[in-house]
Specification:
It is built from seven helices and ten strands. It is of the alpha+beta class.
Length: 304
């Protein structure tokens, strides 16, 4: 495995200073050319010195023009990666107007350091129980090491996209969609924060080799696949009904127990075990029934 490229600062000069130097060089070259032409005209002869003066003037002018190619601008939250003859010479992170070796102009790379969003496509994958689900996520990321982003991967933006899709698919296989059993404490739908944190840790491990920092991850879409959505909806409804019934029964039993205790403490009426059982049965029917109970009045003795 190849070693990672480490980012380092490039040595650059202020752009204004080098612009003045380039203009002065151009003017000096033009002045030499004019002086050479005027001298040749006065002497009415073209000598070897004339040719030397013209060639020197053209070279000086060309050197000044070449110097202007080294000027470049770095905007806020942007970096410039400088490459000289295929060799990485450093990165400029400070915003402003700078000058670097003009021969870096063809291989100079601008890299945005701004925070970006990537929304993964909806992926159909089986969850931990094998149920097909559709899942998607939003990944918030930014480049923190320009050398790794430019040299250690072919295209860091495409790398982020592919690795994000892969990580989301792998995440869906680690957890069930819903936790129906007590030992399953984490699920995709019930523990969004924990699942998002797991996704962020995995993505950071994948993208660190490209010099990318994962700021935040969040599931943007989660549902059962259409072919099982209706069946799973009925299962969720049944689970909710059972849970509600359990709560109702627990409350009814507590109310019946409280009623029997209050009757015994206040000595309102003395009930034998058979009558207690009948009372418990009647109260449970009233408290747990879905429809209002129709009372039946007993005008005779309690034991008739």
């Amino acid at each position: 495995m190849s070693s990672r490229t480490e980012e380092r600062s490039a040595r650059v000069l202020p752009g204004v200073t080098m612009l003045v130097v380039s203009i002065a060089t151009d003017l000096a070259g033009l002045a030499l050319i004019v002086w050479t032409v005027v001298s040749a005209a006065r002497e009415a002869a073209v000598t070897g010195g004339t040719w030397i003066g013209l060639i020197a003037g053209l070279l000086i002018t060309g050197l000044g023009a070449l110097g202007t190619l080294g000027l470049f601008v770095v905007q806020p939250n942007q970096a410039a990666v400088l490459i000289l003859f295929g060799r990485y010479i450093g990165t400029v992170r400070t915003d402003g107007w700078f000058w670097a070796n003009p021969f870096t102009v063809g291989a100079r790379r601008k890299v945005s350091m701004r925070i970006r969003n990537f929304d993964t496509q909806k992926a159909k994958v089986n969850d931990r129980r094998g149920n097909p689900v559709e899942i998607a996520a939003v990944v918030v990321w930014r480049v923190v090491d320009t050398a790794r982003a430019v040299f250690d991967v072919d295209d860091f933006e495409e790398f982020v996209a592919v690795q994000s899709e892969t990580a989301v698919r792998h995440l869906a296989t680690q957890y069930p969609y819903d936790s129906y059993e007590e030992h399953e404490v984490t699920s995709l739908s019930g523990d969004v924060d924990a699942v998002s944190e797991t996704l962020q840790v995995e993505l950071q491990d994948r993208l660190s080799r490209a010099g990318v920092d994962v700021v935040e991850t969040r599931l943007s879409h989660l549902s059962y696949a259409p072919e099982i959505a209706s069946a799973m909806l009925r299962r969720q409804q049944a689970t909710a009904i059972v849970a509600a019934r359990r709560k109702i029964v627990e409350g009814a039993v507590g109310m019946v127990d409280m009623a029997l205790q209050m009757l015994a403490e206040e000595r309102v009426v003395e009930l034998d075990e058979e009558r207690k059982a009948a009372m418990v049965s009647n109260l449970l029917v009233v408290l747990t029934g879905e429809q209002a109970a129709a009372p039946v009045l007993n005008a005779g003795s309690l034991y008739q």
